[in-house]
Amino acid sequence: LGYILSPKTILKGVSRLGAAECAWYRLDDDGFESRRYWDLASHVLAPRAAHDPEQFRALFDDAVAVRLRSDVPLGAFLSGGVDSASVVASMAAQSASRVHAYCVGFEDDSFDESDFARAAAAHMGVDIEVTRQQALPVSELSRLVWHTDEPFADNSMMPTYLLNQVARRKVTVALSGDGADELLAGYPTYRADQIHRLWSRMPGFVRRGALAAADRWLKPSYRKVSWDYKLRRFLAGHDLDAGRAHYSWREIFTGADKARLLSPEALAELGDYDPYDSFAQAFAEVKGADFLDSCLYVDIKTWLADDILVKADRMSMANSLEVRSPFLDHRLVEYCARLPESAKMDMRRQKVILKEAMAGAIPEGTIRRAKRGFNAPTRQFGFLGVDSPRGAGLLRPDFRLDPAQEDITFKSFSLGVLSQWLDMFERYEKQGEWRA
Length: 436
What we know:
This protein has 19 helices and 7 strands. The chain has 436 residues and is of the alpha/beta class. It has a 5-stranded parallel sheet, sandwiched between helices. Strands 1-2 form a two-stranded antiparallel sheet. The two termini are 23 Å apart.
């Protein structure tokens, strides 16, 4: 997946607490116990609330207001999307002083959203500083891997690090738009879930033929999460049930890939472990909910908690910057969990209630734009992990990716990060010092 699912870690015998969990270690009897102190599932399963943009806006504005309390300089992150623009618009409406926003741009036009961020800033009357993401040397990537402490291969950690670094020069606290996509169905994967329900009704020979044709004729473009990459991912899940198909949209290495990558010894030690088990458990916790609400809950428990917020935490702390996320105010999260599907997604729009609530406050062009995400180009590294990294017998030495046959952006970056982390761990075992 490119990240590690809680409660697991890369270190044997070491686990971590899940989101909204606390724990005690009792010295008298060496007893360790943990419990969850907040439960979102009950809100997902609760009766539906009214689709009310005004109530949403009131809750959202208050969530922003709470996070504007600061004795130190405060700013915001602003991309070309509706989430960060909504946060900045609310800040601008409630702040006595002019808001300062920060954005990262890219030389590759398919990744760059800085012009949209500038347009949004002009519309809202805020200052914006745009910094171009330059080609990072591998040594700098190694430093980011060191900051994450364990293998973590979300390639947007590179611009996220730079964004935090630039903001920290002038502010100590920054507000972000993290969480809106998981609350209000903002990702293309939720549209893929809808299409999958229809596609799965097609005859098997049609679905298999489409996949075979894509494998043969569809060559990778290496654009930002390109349509060819998404189409391949979608067709690969043609024979999966709805839950596992939803999992597969975010899967980087499939079961077949892992069989080619991992050594026989590693496969034997893994036994019947399947990362999907964590997703299946989350699906079970909200059994009876509509499928979209179930998927949102699953993504909050997995992708948001173990990838998005880990990236935000590590990269902000690496720069001594505090990042606050108004969309993750527990009152707003609970309210969104109870909203009907129509408030989140219809046949034309996603994040419906957010766009309705922010109409006029942010540019109409921002509201209409399709979701782009915050991925970063990685071609400047070459293909980091085309070959299998060293791994103390964990990986097959003859494994190799074919960049001409498929878009290997995420696979090669994952293997490259893993290779660098394994090198650091090997040095740590020999020298007793954890360093990049």
